[in-house]
Amino acid sequence: MKKVGVEGLFAGAACLAIAAASTATAAPEQRREFHLEEQDLGAALRALGQASGGQIIFPADAVAGKRSPRLDGSYTLKEAVDLLLRGTGLVALDRRGLILIRGRVSPAEVDTSAEHDEIVVTGSQIHGVPPVGSTAKEITRADLDKSGYVTVQQVLQKLPQNYGGGVSETTFGISNFNGATNGTWGGASVNLRGLGVSSTLVLVNSHRQPAGAYGSFTDISLIPTTAIESIEVLADGASAIYGSDAVAGVVNIALRNKFEGAETRARYGTADGDFSEVQASQIFGRGWATGHFVVAYEYYRRGNMLTSKRAFASEDLRPFGGGDYRSGYANPGTIVAGGRLFAIPAGQDGTALTPSALIAGQSNRRDSREGADLLPKQQRHSAYASLEQEVSPSITLFGNALYASRKFRRLYSQADSQTAITVPTTNPFYVDPIGTGRPISVRYSFVDDFGQPVRVGTVKAFTGTAGARLELGRWRADLSGVYGTERDSQTTLNVRNSARLALALADTNRATAFNPFGDGSHTNPATIDSVRGSYAYRTRNEYWSATAKADGPLFSLPGGDVKLAFGTEYREEKMTSTETLDTASLTPVNSVRTDFPGGRNVLAGYGELYIPIFSEENERAGLHRLALSVAGRIERYSDFGTTTNPRVGLTWEPLEGVRLRGTFGKSFRAPLPSEIAQGPLYNGYLAYQLPDSSRAAGFSNVLLVLGNDPNMGPERATTWTASVDLEPKALPGLALTLTWYSVSYKDRITDVTADAFNFLEKRSIYAPIINEQPTAAQIADLFGRPEFSNPFGLAETDITAIINAQRQNLSSVKQSGLDFDLRYDFKLGSGSAQAGVDGSYIFHIDQAITSSAAAQNVVNSVGNPLDLRLRGRLSWNRGGFGAAAFVNYSGGYRNTLLASEPKISSWTTVDLQLSYEFTEKRGPLGGLSISLGATNLFDRDPPYVEYYNGDTAIGYDPENADPLGRVISLQVTKRW
C-alpha cells in the first residue's frame, strides 16, 4: 500500500472528522483522567478530543463500524488514543501534540504496518488480528493502579483462572504439591487452571524468558511493576502459536515501550505493623518523529514476617481442634535406649545428669516452626530500557533489556537442625538410662547451639532483545534475537556437620566435648563453631533464540483480506549447577552437576491463516461477522523428537452485540531439565521390602528402578473452548462473557515414589510399572549396576518383582469448567461507575495416576484447584477522585490430607482503593496523585486447615490463602 502523507490524508478524506474542542493542542506529557463508555469509535474519538482539549484528526470512513473499548483512568492523550485504537488496525501518530490517525480508507483493508507500530494481541501472530475463537483477558495499567497490589504475582494471584498452587514464597517449605519445592530462591510462578506452573507459558513483550529454579518456571516476581503497560492472559491451549508450555494458556506482560514524559512513584505498605514493604520507582520516556526511548528503574524492599505473628502458623494445632505435630527432636532432647524413651529434664546443664533424673516413657517436643519466617526478607532492584529507531521508511530497529537482582534472607524452620545423634560411651556427659554400657541415641535440636537456621541468597537475571521490523509493501517482517540468563545462589547456615559432630561427641575432654544433655546450650563455643556446617547451591540458566516471521494479506474476500503469518524460530537452553556441602565430611565438598547435559536446542516452524468470511462489507441476515483461523506449529527437540500441534478458531457474530466463539487445539509440554537428566545423581537401583498383604510374610522383596525414564517424551493435551459474548444494544454498558473449556491432558510426567509403600497394595493402579515375573538375567543386571543399593542385604534369588518407579509419562487429567465475566458501565451521580464480577467454576478434574487406574475427581481438595473462585468489583470516578472496591471469594473444599476429609470453610476478603489526582496543570500539584489502599480490609484470617505434609504441619492452606491479613498502603505518584 502506498504510504499516505499528511497532505494526502487531508485531500483523500471526503468526510474528514476533526475532534477538537479548540485549536490548542494538549502537551503530550500531560496526563488527564478520562472516563468513556464502550461506544462507536468515531464518537469516542470526538469525545476524547473534547475532554482533552487536544486535536485528533481521522478519516470518518476509516473508523466506520468499529467499536471502542471502555476507557477509565489517567492517561496522556496519545496513550488514551492508542487504547481506543487497539486491535482496529489503525495507527495514531503524535505530531507535536496533533494526533493523526492513519489507516485504510476501507475498513476491510487494515494496514497494521503503518509507521511500524506493533499491534499484536496475545494468541495470534498476525498484527492487528485478535485471536479468533478466544479472547485474551487484559489487565491494564489503570487496573494495576486500582488493585492496591505492588507486585505482578499479587495481581495475578487474584485472577480466578490462576491457581495459587506452585512456586511462591508462601508455599515453599510447607506444600509438597505443584512443584512448590522449586521456590527455594523466593520466586513466583503462574499456574493457570492448576495444570502446573510449567504448563503456563509466560512471555515478556511477546518473547520467552530464561527459566529459573532448574528450568521449571519463569519468575514473574523479577519484573518491575512500574514498567508494565498491560498483562494479557489467554487461558486456552496455544502451542500451535507459541510452542511448548502453552497447555493451560499464555500470560504476556507488555512493557511501557511508548511511554511519554516522566513518572515517579513511592509506596509504603504494612500488614498492621507485622511486616512492611517499600517500593520506589522512576520511569522516563521520550518520543520523536522516528523513534522512542524508555528507561525505568524500581526498588522494592520487604521485611520478613515471623510465624509468631500468626497463631495458625504452628505445628501445635490443638487450640484449633487439630493434632499436635510438634517434633520429637527438641532441646532438652529425648534419649532412646533399648527401644524406650527417656525425656531429659529441663532446668539443668547436663554436666551432672543421672539416669534417675530422666523421665521414662516421655518425649520432649518442640515446634520446628518456632522462630522461622512465614515470609522471608527480600530486596530487589530492577531496571528496564527500550529503544526504537526508524532508519528508513521501511526499516525500524528496536532493542530492549531487562535486568533484576534480588537478595533474600529466610529464617528457616528447625528441621535442618533436628536429628537423632549417637552418643558414644567416651562422651564425658554420657548417661545410660538402662545400664547396658552401649552408645545411646538422643533426639536433639541444635537451634539453641547454632541459632536459627538461615537461608541467604541472590537471584540475578538479564534478558536482552534486539531486532528489526521491515515494511515489504503491505507485508511486514520481523527479525529478532533474545539472550537471557539467570544465576541463582543460596547458602543455608547454622546446620550440623555430622562428621565433625561425631568427633566432638567422642571427645573425652569435658572442656571441648559436645554436651547434648542440658536444657539450652552448654557446650564450649569453639566446639559449637567447629561442628556448625552449611550447604550451598548455585545454578545458571542460559537461553538464546532467533526468530524470523512475516505476515500480511494474501488476497481479498468480500469479508476482507485473507492474511497469513509464517515464521521460524531456533532456541537453545542450557543449565548447569554446582554445590558445596559442608554437612557430612570433615572439609567442604564441591561438585559440579550437569543437570541438563549438552543443553537443548529447538527448531520450530509455524503458520497461521486468518479468513474473514463475513464482515460489515458483505454481511447478511445471521452473518454480521464470521471469521476463521487455522494455525499449526512443528517443533523438533534435540533430546526427544518432534511434535506437531494444530489449532482452529472460529468467531461468529450473527448480529451486532452477540458473538459466538470456539477453538480446538493440540498442545504439549516438553520435559524439564530435572525430568530428563541421567546419571548417578538421578538414577538408582534399590533392593527393598515393600508391604504386601497378599503374602503370608506381609511384605515382598522387590527391586526399585529409580530416576528418570531415558525415553521421556512430552506431555500432550487436547483443548476445546466455546464462548458467547453479549453486549445488548438495549442496555448500553452491559457486557457478559461465558467460556466453557475442556482440557484432556495425557502422558503427564509423574513421580510415583511418594506412594512407594503402596505399590503392591494398589496393584490395580500400579500394574503398568510392576514386573512380577522378572528373569534372573534382569535381576542380575540391576544388581551389578554401580548405582545399586541393598540396605536389607537381599540375595538375587529373594527378588520377586521389579518395579519401574522412574519419573515417566504415566498419568492423565481431564478438566472442564466455565469462565465468566459480567460488567456494567453506568453513570452514578455526576461520575462514571463500573460494577462487575469475574469468576471461574470447575466442573471436574478427573485424574488417573496410571493408564490402568480409575480416574478420581480431585477438584476441591487440598493440593488442587477449588471449583469456584470469584472477584467482584465496583468502582466510581468523578473528576480527580476515584474509589474501587473488590470482593474476593474462594469456595469451601475438603482436606484430603486427613482420613476423615473434614470440610474447609470458604473465604471472603475485601480490598479497597481510594485515589485522588490533582487537577492543576502546573506547579507542585500538577500531575500529582495520591492513593490509599487496603487489601483484606476486614483482616480475615485464612480458613483453618490441618495441613500436614508428612514432615511438618501448619494451620492454613498456603495454596488457596495467604497469611498476611490486612495490608494498608499509601502511594504517591508524580507525573512530570
Rg from Cα: 31 Å
Strand content is: over 45%
**How would you sum up the major sheet?**
22 strands, antiparallel, barrel
CATH fold node name of one domain = Phage tail protein beta-alpha-beta fold
> Structural class of the helix and strand makeup?
mainly beta
Q: Share of helix among residues?
A: under 10%
Distinct helical segment count: 13
Contiguous uncertain segments of 5+ residues = 1-29, 104-119
Report on this model:
By secondary structure, the chain is mainly β. The protein has a domain at 6-107: Phage tail protein beta-alpha-beta fold, CATH 3.55.50.30. Helices cover 9% and strands 47% of the residues. It is built from 13 helices and 53 strands. The strands form 10 sheets. The chain has a 22-stranded antiparallel β-barrel. It has a 5-stranded mixed beta sheet with strand order 9-12-13-10-11. Strand 35 and strand 36 form a beta hairpin. The radius of gyration is 31 Å and the shape is globular. The protein starts with 5 loop residues before the first helix and ends with a strand.
What layout of secondary structure does this protein have?
Elements: H1 6-12, E1 16-20, E2 32-36, E3 39-40, H2 41-52, E4 55-59, H3 60-63, E5 67-68, E6 71-75, H4 77-85, E7 91-95, E8 98-102, E9 137-140, H5 141-147, H6 152-157, E10 200-204, E11 207-208, E12 228-234, H7 239-242, E13 249-255, E14 261-270, E15 276-288, E16 291-302, E17 305-306, E18 334-337, E19 340-343, E20 359-360, E21 373-375, E22 377-392, E23 395-411, E24 418-423, E25 440-445, H8 447-450, E26 454-472, E27 475-496, H9 498-506, H10 525-531, E28 532-557, E29 560-582, E30 589-593, E31 600-614, E32 625-637, E33 641-655, E34 658-669, H11 673-676, E35 684-691, E36 699-706, E37 715-726, E38 734-750, H12 763-766, E39 770-771, H13 776-783, E40 788-789, E41 801-804, E42 808-828, E43 831-848, E44 856-857, E45 868-878, E46 881-890, E47 893-894, E48 903-904, E49 907-917, E50 928-935, E51 947-948, E52 953-954, E53 967-975
Parallel strand pairs: 4-8, 10-13, 35-40, 36-41
Antiparallel strand pairs: 1-4, 2-6, 3-5, 7-8, 9-12, 10-11, 12-13, 14-15, 14-53, 15-16, 16-22, 17-21, 18-19, 18-25, 19-20, 22-23, 23-26, 24-25, 26-27, 27-28, 28-29, 29-30, 29-31, 31-32, 32-33, 33-34, 34-37, 35-36, 37-38, 38-42, 39-41, 42-43, 43-44, 43-45, 45-46, 46-49, 47-48, 49-50, 50-53, 51-52
Helix pairs in contact: 2-4
